[in-house]
Specification:
Blueprint: E1 3-8, H1 15-24, E2 30-34, H2 42-45, H3 60-67, E3 81-82, E4 88-90, H4 106-115, E5 125-132, E6 148-153, H5 157-175, E7 188-195, H6 200-213, E8 218-225, H7 228-234, H8 246-262
């Protein structure tokens, strides 16, 4: 089992949309954790399984008090809420000021997330939506515990330049210096491009070559379709066959490729049923936002 952290360098590339989409099609039981210190979005945009709103006080905010006394991975489930589509989420902070309550606890959370797969009762992978990161963002303290850090980027030249520089900086911080793309150092650093499906493959190859040439220690692991209609369906704002959307189809390919390459290193599958977006809107932030 594994902790997979998603983040971006700057702007609004769609980190939360990508995190929700990947979690919705994840092949094993998964917990989606909103770990952006600036605050989460799901509580404002998603319905709980009971049809009402999510409780903003149950999630990262409530887990802070527990974590200060030590955190057993199974305790994470005490702070989880299911969305209307069945996805289990750890709701993020309401505002950035609340992040002060988590000061010093990020490594504890990272260890608990990474160890959740060893739970004898309810093992699961964790997908952490870390939002925008910089050198002093506390969510970066989760990364040493992750199996994979995915940097989400759009494809404008300035966005590609930023993700190149961010990947190199993270490689230096986490691995002690630049490494080649074939490095087995953990956490692995990957890039997910949010792109128009037309020509996405060629673009991904070009960006990957750039990352390798720049010795960033990162490589492109896939592309998520820039699909506003699918994102609105994911958020429950539009009706339609979500499982047929370009967004979900591309998310399925990314997860399949990740498992083909790294799944064997992520231990045995957890017990439980994977959540499928075909059962209805999963909920979450959509479009070009965070």
């Amino acid at each position: 089992m594994a902790l997979i952290a998603l983040a971006a360098d700057k702007g609004s590339p769609g980190v939360t949309t990508a995190a929700v989409a990947l979690a919705a099609v994840w092949p094993r039981r998964v917990l989606l954790a909103e770990t952006d210190p600036a605050g989460g979005d799901l509580v404002y945009r998603s319905a709980a399984a009971h049809g009402g709103p999510l409780n903003p006080n149950t999630g990262m905010l409530s887990i802070a008090a527990t974590a200060r006394r030590g955190l057993v991975p199974d305790q994470l489930w005490d702070h989880v809420q299911p969305l209307s589509g069945g996805l289990e989420v750890l709701v993020g902070l309401g505002i950035a000021e609340q992040a002060a309550g988590l000061a010093g606890l990020w490594p504890t959370l990272g260890h608990a997330f990474a160890s959740l797969g060893d739970s004898p009762n309810a093992p699961a992978d964790v997908i952490a939506d870390c939002g925008r990161v910089s050198g002093d963002t506390p969510a970066v303290e989760l990364f040493p515990h992750a199996a994979l850090v995915l940097l989400v980027s759009r494809t404008e030249p300035e966005a590609i330049a930023r993700v190149r520089d961010r990947a190199a900086a993270l490689s230096a911080k986490l691995h002690g210096g630049p490494r080649g793309a074939a490095s087995l150092a953990t956490p692995l650093i990957g890039v997910v491009l949010v792109a128009d499906p037309a020509g996405a493959g060629k673009l991904a190859s070009q960006v990957n070559d750039m990352l390798v040439h720049a010795r960033t220690g990162a490589r492109v692991v896939g592309t998520i379709a820039d699909d506003p209609t699918g994102a609105d369906q994911l958020a429950g704002r539009k009706r339609g066959r979500l499982d047929k959307s370009l967004l979900i189809r591309s998310a399925r390919k990314v997860t399949a490729d990740l498992y083909q390459q790294y799944g064997a290193a992520w231990s045995v599958p957890a017990h439980g049923t994977a959540h499928s977006p075909a059962h209805g809107p999963v909920g979450g932030h959509a479009g070009a936002g965070a």
